[in-house]
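Format notes (please read before filing issues)

Several people have asked whether sequences and structure tokens are stored in separate files. They are not. Every record keeps both together, in the order shown below: the sequence lines, then the token lines. Line labels are part of the format and must not be stripped during preprocessing.
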Amino acid sequence: MKITKEFKELEKSSVQLTVTIAKGDVAESYKSTLGKYVKNAQIPGFRKGHVPANVLERKYGDSIKADAIGELIDRSFDEIFKEETDMRPLPYSQPVMDEMPALDITKDLTYTVKYDVFPKVDVKNFGGITVKEPQVTITDDDLNEELKAMQERNAMVIDKKDGVVEKDNIVTINYCELDDEGKEIEGTSREDFVFTVGSGENIYKIDDEITGMKKDESKEITKKYKKDDENEDLAGKTKRIRVTVKSVKIRDLPALDDEFAQDCNEKYKTLDDMKADIRNNMETAKNRRIREMKNNSLLEQLVEKNAFDIPASMLQAELDGRWRMMAQQFQTTPEQLDKMIAASGQTKQAMLEQWTGDSEKMLKSRIIVDSLIRARNISVTPEEIEAQYAKIAEEGGMSVDEVKKHYDDPRSKEYLIDDTKENKLYDEIYKEVKVTKGDKLTFKQLFEQRA
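Then the structure lines:
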């Protein structure tokens, strides 16, 4: 097929493509399409395959021309994008034709379409970029906090012998609101409400007020709430609440010894074995978190230094994907989610607008990473993938065979390859930018920081 093409770059990574197909190919395509009609047409008075061409042209002329044009456009697209891979339409960007061309077999056929392409970002200058690396040391206190959490997860909950409410006790209470005459306000009573004293996980925040009460004791509490209380139903109000303590329990923590370690995991022989493993896991988590924070800081600065627009179709596809994911989380369909959101007084459009800013930043970061990987021809070898298997196995306490099984399907394997490429890219870039020591943080603060 003899064709000429002209690309014109538009705003937001859109492209206008004008294609001209030689009249010889136009005539050949029309002839071929007409031949198919002749072969398959069934018209009363004629045998199948023997309907004269001129009869079909009079009866189906517009359809024959439309089919011929469609075939010409499809074939020209296939030829053009075998070569012009960088100008290929995004998978979710359907080329739009403002006007369908007229077919005249004595003339060239010209058509014009518009569509979105992958944004072109030429990231070369890394000057002025400084990435701060948080300084975190895992202390004995951090380790002990993790051990305490493990104790609590494995604790037995038993009745407290003296029945006196204290901080960290697990209490069961009945309560209700009282009016000015001391009568119960209908609809405010609750029975067998369970919470941990000191957690504040009760509507009236009466942790301090019930401290010191005993099992089966009742008490009337009058509490005045601040005007800026986070609970709007309580802010600035005074409430009278009758509370009865039904039970008081404590967590009976297991002793931190070799037996406890063995109960937690059979791979541990001693408590020291478990401590060493916990510290190793914390180091792995720390390093992964610090790298995540560094990478995000680097990408934020690269996005600022390299301004470009996100194609409208790409952003819409991302927002649609987030909406479908939210529907899955609510175990419903996207259509039903739309109705649920509307019933709550919100709209889908308003939520999508709220997500737009973060979605654009995420897409720009992803585009920059992809562009740099392609520009630098970063690839991974089978040996490097094997090394990744070994690293994942060591960090996860698994065998290499178990890791390989996890990445056995092509999609998971592709994810691992892409992740390995990204890590190689970051390693290269950190040699070209300034990396300085950041703030000193505790292990807990590290995970409270926004990545």
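For reference, the curators noted about this record: The longest helix spans residues 271-305. The mean pLDDT is 92.
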